[in-house]
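Help!! Second protein's tokens look totally different from the first
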Amino acid sequence: MRHGMESAQAIRRLVLDVDKAVRAPSLIEIAYAIQSCEGVEACNVTVTEIDIETVGTNVTIEGSALNYNEIVHAIEKTGAVVHGLDQIIVGSGSGLSRQRQGVGAYDLLLYWREAVQMPGIAAQMRADFDHILVDDPGRVSPA
């Protein structure tokens, strides 16, 4: 299957190895070119190395249903060169980042659940806060 073809899983994130000449294009020109592509929600261009003639960058692109070919074309139209695809995440949502974050968040929710059951801590929380917002309450089973 070629990059950019329709598939059951949408491309959600790309990390590209991109080189550019020292003088041009600017990092801003590259970022704007990427941002103009359909489905792009965020773009991060990070300089990784500089030598006499070229600047090496890692370009991270996030969005929904990213089109690899369109993005590469937009980058290369600025005069920069895509040397490789270092990472790709496909799927219908941001499951990988939620999975990474979920462990810590779940542990923190368990900590709060235990803390509010201790009379001294619970009394102090009632004195300090009117409300406590718990994100994703369905992830913690009731005691």
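Here's the second one for comparison:
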Amino acid sequence: MQYQFIPQEYQHLEHWYIKFAKQRYGAHKSITKNQPRKDKLGNLIEFKMTFEEWFKIWHESGHFLERGNKRGEYCMSRYHDIGHYEVGNVFIQLTTSNTSQACKGHKWTEEACKAASLQRKGKKQTKVNKDPDITCILCRKTTTPSNFYQYHGENCNHNPDQIKVTCPKCNKTGGKNQMHRFHFDRCTRRNKEGKNNTPTTSRPFSKKALKNVKEANKKRAGKRSKQKVIFMGVLYESLTEAIYCNNTTRHLILKHPSFKRL
């Protein structure tokens, strides 16, 4: 039997093309028959198309080889999700649009909600159709697609086109996102004018933490000589106590002009 709907590029593969189409047609027909469903009006959905009619609709859409149930693929839908699969009541659209159309205007009854809740109770949710991890071609780092496109992609340290910014206080240069996220609010070095920044005290340590530091200093007193220090006009029993009291780092305290050892 000759079919006039076969594309020219598949004329030499007529046998394979028709065999593949008949398999898809049989699968669609058997699913409708063996798994009966109801439309929005409560009527049973039937399949009332011959193979020639079904194949012609798919061919005219131009998406026969893109048929499927995944994102970006196409399926045969019914207008307003009502009626049977028959000529004049079906068209081809994306599977995502078909799912949206089926759920639009649907309201769950209290009985349906309770039944769904009981069915899922005690079951662990698993990720279905999880996208595979992406590996950066520059640094070979592997991560999930969401993290890659949100954080890593253009911000990879090995990317020559990465947008870079410079800190106005310490002239440190780095990637735009990393500098805004980690450096700017925490920069405690000298600015361009040469003025000193006061170490941060936004999160002072509690009395219990200071007590623990003093007890640790007493335990270490026998092992090494304990040296008192002066930092910003305040006398501390040790350098460690000065670090904890000012919530800063050892490096910044040692470079500060007000730091003295006694």
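Reply: Different proteins will give different token patterns, so don't panic. Residues 8-103 form one domain.
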